[in-house]
Specification:
This protein has three helices and no strands. By secondary structure, the protein is an all-alpha fold.
């Protein structure tokens, strides 16, 4: 779990996981989690309505534009690399 079989290097994953389990199993920590109150932070509906279209366009058009730009850059550099210059 904590040692690379090829290089023999020891990592701290085992110690980290044991510390995480001890923290999760701690009796005081569990009791504190049960008594914690969640505070709901409500969103402002006016701001949501005003910015709805902007965020829809960012989430729909943004990835499409990124893919198109990536394809254009890829083809540009590929052409530059494989064209013969006399």
């Amino acid at each position: 779990m904590g040692q690379d079989k090829y290089t023999g290097q020891v990592y701290g994953n085992r110690d980290f996981l044991i510390n995480c389990l001890n923290w999760l199993v701690d009796k005081n920590g569990i009791m504190e989690l049960r008594s914690r109150e969640l505070k709901l932070r409500l969103l402002n509906h006016q701001i949501i309505k005003a910015d709805k279209f902007k965020w829809q366009m960012i989430n729909i058009a943004g990835p499409v534009i990124i893919v198109i730009l990536g394809g254009l850059l890829y083809s540009y550099f590929r052409r530059r690399k494989y064209t013969r210059h006399w």
